[in-house]
Every structure is written in C-alpha cells, then in structure tokens.
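Note to self: the last two entries modelled the partners one at a time, which told us nothing about the interface. This time every component goes in together.
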Amino acid sequence: MAVYTHLSAEDLARLIGHYDVGKLVSAKGIAEGISNSNWLVETTGSDGNGARFILTMYERRIDLSDLPFFLGLLDHLSAKGVPVPRTIHDRDGASSRMVDDKAVALIEYLPGVSVGHPTPEQARAVGIALADLHLASTDFALTRENDLRPRDWAAILADAGAGAIGTIDRALPSVIEESLSDLLEHWPEDLPSSIVHADLFPDNVLMLGSRVSALIDFYFSCHDITAYDLAVTHVAWSFTAGGHDYRTEVGAALLEGYQSVRPLSQSEIAALPLLAQGAAMRFIATRIQDWLDTPADALVTRKDPMDFARRLQFYRRDGEKVFNA
Amino acid sequence: MAVYTHLSAEDLARLIGHYDVGKLVSAKGIAEGISNSNWLVETTGSDGNGARFILTMYERRIDLSDLPFFLGLLDHLSAKGVPVPRTIHDRDGASSRMVDDKAVALIEYLPGVSVGHPTPEQARAVGIALADLHLASTDFALTRENDLRPRDWAAILADAGAGAIGTIDRALPSVIEESLSDLLEHWPEDLPSSIVHADLFPDNVLMLGSRVSALIDFYFSCHDITAYDLAVTHVAWSFTAGGHDYRTEVGAALLEGYQSVRPLSQSEIAALPLLAQGAAMRFIATRIQDWLDTPADALVTRKDPMDFARRLQFYRRDGEKVFNA
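The predicted structure of the combined assembly is written out below.
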C-alpha cells in the first residue's frame, strides 16, 4: 500500500515512449497493491484524445517468471469479455519491460470503486463475475501452482510458533490448533480445478453501482480447486468489519449469483464448509506472518489475524447450514 | 505521503453528492501531500462528460482556521490567471466540508508532472510563475503569519539539542552553529513583503514540457519577505540530488525568469545570499525535527538534513557570486 520506488517525470516519459499511447500528461503514485508500486498515468493517447493507464512496478513477493502468467491471463480473460484490465504491450509486443532492475507493466485503467459494505445485489454480481472468470480461464495455456496451499499455511504457522502467535491474541493458538490438522487431513483432492483468483476481496473488485466494472490484482491467481475460490470470496465478502457477524443475505446472494452461471456439484457443495475454513486459515497464516514481520511502531496498520479466526469459528459452527441450505 | 484515512466508496459517493459534479466513477488514494490524505476522484461531471478532482482530507499540521486562507488563495490566484487549481465549492457555497471530525476540500485536477532534474528553460518558467504569484496576490484580503521564521527554526533546533542532532551527522551541529546566530542577527526587516508560497520545490510544480501547468500544495503559504520566497525556490531547484553540486545555469535561469516579471531592488539582491542561507536552515530545522520524530525502522524514508547543510555551506561561500553576478 505505497509507492516504494521514486520514478521521476523524465523516467516516466522515457518509459511511456516505448508504448503507442501518446505523450505523458500526468502521473500520480497511488496507494494500491500489496507489494508493488503503482501510478495512475495519463497520456495524450494514441489518437490524441487522452488515455489513462495503471503503471505497476513489481517490487517484492512477485516472482518475475510468473509475470507472463499474470499478464497473459488478463489479456485472455479480457478477450473473453470478463471485466478485467488488459495489459498494454509495448512497440515490440512485450507485456512487461525492465526499468533498472525492476519489471513494470502498463495496464488498462478501468473505472469503478471498491465497496466497503456490499449489498446483496453487489455480492450477487461478484458471484456471477467469479463464475465467468472460472469458465473463461479453462483454455488459458499457462499454468501456475498455488504456493499457499494447506501444507504452506501449516509451514508458515509452524515457523511463527505458538508462543509468538499467542502474543498477537491469547485465543489465537487454540483456534488454529483445533482446525489445522482437520484441514490437512480432509482437504479434498478430487474436486474440479481451474484457474482461481484466490484473493477476491472487495478491494480487488471495482464496481459502478451494482455492476462489476473490473476484477483486479491477480497476483495470487493460480490453479487450484475451483470451489475454493468461491470459498475465499465468501469469506471475504459475507462478514461485517472484523469478521464479527455473518451477513446472511450477502453470503446467500454471492452463492446464488455464482450458481446462476456455474452450478456447483453435490461434492463441491459438501466441501464448501471445509474449504471456507481453509480460506480463513490461509488469511490467518499470512496475517500472522505479516504481523510478526512488521515492527509495532512502523506507522503501518497491521491487519489483525483475529478477523479471520472469527470467520473460521463461524464456518466450523455454521458452515453446513450456510452452504447446504 | 500516504493515505491516512480509509474512505469507503459509500463515504466518497455521499461526499461527492454535496457538489455539483455528477456521480462518483472512480477514486484512487494517491501518495501525495505532506500530511494530508489525497484521492484522485473521477465523476460523471456536471455536464455528463466526465471530470476529475483531487479530494484532500486535512489530517495533521494544518490548523483548520487557516483553510479559508489556503483555499481562498487558490481561487484568488486562479481568477487572476496564475496556474493554480481552483477550489470546488459545494452546493451551499462552502470551500470545505467536514467528514466525521476532519475537513475535506475538493480541488481542481490539473495535468502535468513534477520534474526530477529541471532544465534551465523549466527553471526560468518557474521563476516567471513565482513572480506572477507574488504580483497577483497583493490584493488578496486574508492574511496568515509565517510560523517558520528564524526564531522558529532556532526554537526547533534548540528543542532537538546538539547531542541528538549530532547523531544524524557528526558535522551537522557545527554547520548550524556557525550560521544560526548570524541569521538571527542580520535577518532583514525592511524588505518588501507579500504572500509567499514558501515551499515551491519541484514536487510542488506540475509541468508539461517547459510550461508550468500548476503550482500546488500551498499549505505553507503565508505573508513574509517576497525575496525570501525566491530564495526558497532557488535552494529547492538549483542543486543536484543531495545538494552536492550547484547547477549554475538552472539557478541563473530561475533568477532571470523571475526578474523578467518582477525586477528585484538593490536591497533585495543584496539580501539574497543571507535569505538563501535562511531558506536552507529552515529545511534543516524541519528535517531534523522529522528525523528525530521518526523511528529508524518505520518503513518511511527519512529525509537527510545534510542535503540542506551542503546548500547552506554553498551559499555562505558563494552566495555573493551567485546573486550579484
């Protein structure tokens, strides 16, 4: 959530010159992205009528060998009508370029805002868009493994250690302990898989009213269990702030929208309570890692893993009711 | 340089609804401003053709009673043709509104980028724009005292203490000591005064090629010695990174551009070497304050006061030559 690298106007103008987008008119560093620097860039446009783009510089966490997957997927989905921003290719056809030792990509700007408190109608639209994404990605040629699967959460949590985790919240170690082995033992192996977004929080969806104008930030996308992506999205959209209360109508609308495009099989429905617990555990694990890696006085707001411990406990208790209703 | 407050899409839409600017289409938090949160906001526009604005939320350091001065000055200068963004007034005519307990203002978006390594031609254009600002502000009705005058730098430096200052750089206390009393004793009292920008660094000037498209960030503007503002701008524009080398042609072009609009008197020219040393000391003082207030591991890049200690030493040595040539 920052701009980590300074790019001068001269750097930016030189970079923009490699694309057929006209001349640089404006560039504002924007406070978006997990570990990238981003600029909202305005140019005169290839036709002189003005154009806007998001310029992303890949700073950390992103393996450069994954960029063709991430950027190619945007083009693939966009060509199939899924609302995602296209990658702008340079005059040589490349989807990314290097600036000094960092990769950058120029990405289509799409309008819309991220909602803070989604309505059922908005959740339904997101369910539809997620199912569209799953169906449209089946014939995408590149592959990427998920590096945040159950064994990875377990490794992150083991590295952190119950002692350190208990300093974040005294209740946290036992919440993890009572679920983790269950997840590792019973994680489904034979459900349909596909490309998944794997991080479709409201922050990563731009909306205009109740219409989805863009799904963004595909930097966790990979191949995994298709219904797991629906579980992640359910965990991300269906609770009040802090994960304190389940929002019944929002959760139901998300599932209903999704199934209106891609009906779930009986085995997928049966797995959803466990997949949702896993989705909650995945965010517990990485939030714990980030929390323990961030100095307490770092002027950065640390995200509380308890927000997802509460969701995990909800799905353990009420998951069957929510998904099998 | 951050977004300190989260405003949801719903908060933003509600806020935008108080202005005659159409409906909210997009909002991106931008990494600009010293101690405010800023968003680049796009709306459908009052005419349906789209419009863009900067939404500023005043977080710290800004005394709310100063807002009519800052926002009124933008309107005053803009009406006189100085390239500054106008304040957008709400349907009740107010230039600022409260959101929860914080003031916000909607400000015109102007194109342009901040240059990193200015050319003499660009420095000349900035000199002209600064002189235009000085002349256009003479009949502005509101006043604001400078709260960063020599006695204030001296107080900041005394509060910090030579011991702590020496931990930043061992050379720093003596650089300050050899100049500070000189500045306090000889600071001119009878030079022409006017409204000054007082912080016109390249970051606060948007340019399109060699044209100034906007002077921005007026949150240090106040009444003070007119030539002091030229000195601040000279200190800010005429050196290589870190203040290591004086850029003769850039400094000369800035002075030449300024004087093409507002010729300096003999007493102003004679005072410039001392005013420039004072301008360097003003930034040394606030950078020391920020440095000592920021934890070393705060994930924020601290700005080195030595960048301005080098400039101060340059003006002590060569100031007469630079300004009296």
